[in-house]
Amino acid sequence: MVSQFEVYLVSLDPTQGSEINKTRPALVISPNEMNQTLRTVLIAPMTTTLRNFPSRVKTTFQGKKGDIALDQMRAVDRSRLLKKLGAIHHTTAGKTLAVLQEMFS
């Protein structure tokens, strides 16, 4: 089962306009209740291009510093999840939830 705060290698193409493209790590942000029943999951792409945006969460994953791009989150079919890479640290998960709450409050 796909779980919240796991990181998967995700195929994001085809994209349009300013959407983050290519195959890259992405964080599952949808709650486990959704992940258990839906064929889609909500993901936020991860990037090593650092931006000082309030919608980005700084992280280090597999030794690389980067951002979780919550401003680029989207729903994807599970077939786009190519490989599980691991999970983010619980403190980063807490920061991610705080930014999401701030974005939608």
What's a concise summary of this model?
The protein is α+β, with helices and mostly antiparallel strands.
Largest sheet: 7 strands, antiparallel
Report strand %. Answer: 35-45%
Unreliable spans = none
CATH topology: SH3 type barrels
- Contiguous helical run count: 2
Mean pLDDT: 95
Distance between the termini: 30 Å
What's the CATH class label?
Mainly Beta
- Structural category is alpha+beta
Going by CATH, the architecture would be Roll
Share of helix, binned: 10-25%
Number of domains: 1
Shape call: globular
- What is the C-alpha radius of gyration, as a whole number of Å? 13 Å
- N-to-C order of helices and strands: EEHEEEEEH
Total strand count, please?
Answer: 7
General description of the model:
The protein is an alpha+beta fold. It has a single domain (6-89), classed as SH3 type barrels (Roll). Helices cover 20% and strands 41% of the residues. The protein has helices at residues 32-37, 90-104, and strands spanning 6-11, 23-28, 40-47, 56-61, 64-69, 74-77, 81-87. Strands 1, 2, 3, 4, 5, 6 and 7 form a 7-stranded antiparallel beta sheet that branches. The longest helix is centred in the last third of the chain and has 15 residues, at 90-104. The radius of gyration is 13 Å and the shape is globular. It starts with 5 loop residues before the first strand and ends with a helix. The mean pLDDT is 95.
